[in-house]
Each structure stands twice: as structure tokens, then as C-alpha cells.
Amino acid sequence: MHLGPDISDPAAPAISFDQFLAVDIRIGTIVKAETFPEARRPAYKLSIDFGPTLGTKRSSAQITAHYTAEELVGRQVAAVVNFPPRQIGKLMSKVLTVGFPDQNGTVVLFSPDRPVPNGARLF
Q1: Which CATH number does the domain housing residue 52 bear?
Q2: Is residue 38, in this structure, part of any structural domain at all?
Q3: For 5-50, what is each residue's pLDDT tens digit?
Q4: 122 domain-assigned
Q5: How far apart are CA 62 and CA 66, in angstroms?
Q6: What's the total number of domains in the chain?
Q7: Is residue 93 part of a domain?
């Protein structure tokens, strides 16, 4: 089950470059991943290191279909770091980890194809 737009949806309405820059998407390394049994749908609780400026932030991610908790640790992922915190069950999520839906609509994480410094910003 995916939560966002489908590949058959038309492109979103045009936005300005300044609107794009308002969304702060950064790279971080997952330093801890654990099951999230309180979540309504299968999910992990992630601790993601975004480097010395932003530090480590928590996130919930419905990515159990493709990833084990053990293989997530050490993986770099992209996340929106400037959304307001959101309460998800007993977890206060501070960032939105991003991905794309596969052919079945389950989330595949978005990661750089080469290591980059934690905290690097998408542009």
C-alpha cells in the first residue's frame, strides 16, 4: 500500500525554485533500526545521523517489506528535515524518510549511489 502519488498520476502543479528550496532534504546514516510493534502498519523506528549540525533524528518508516532492521544500520537515506515533528504511536517522528513505490506500491528507500557526508542537502 503506497501513501503518495502513483506513477500514472500527472505531474504536480508547477512550483517556484524558492518553493523547492523550502523543502530541506538531507542525507543521513541510519545508526539504529528497531521494530515498531505499536504502529498500525508494519514499520521500523529509525535513528538517523545527519551530522554535527543537525544531529541524530528519529523517524518511522513503513519499509519492512524490503528491509530488515539489521541491514538498515549503516545505510544512507534521504529525509525531509524541516517538517514539524509528528506523533506516530508512541514515537515523535522528527524527519520524513523518503522513498519511491515499487511495482506493488511498497516503499523503496531513496539513497545516493555513492557515500556523501551526513547532512548533505539535496539541490
Answers
A1: 2.40.50.140
A2: yes
A3: 666 788 889 999 999 999 999 999 999 999 998 888 899 999 999 9
A4: no
A5: 10
A6: 1
A7: yes
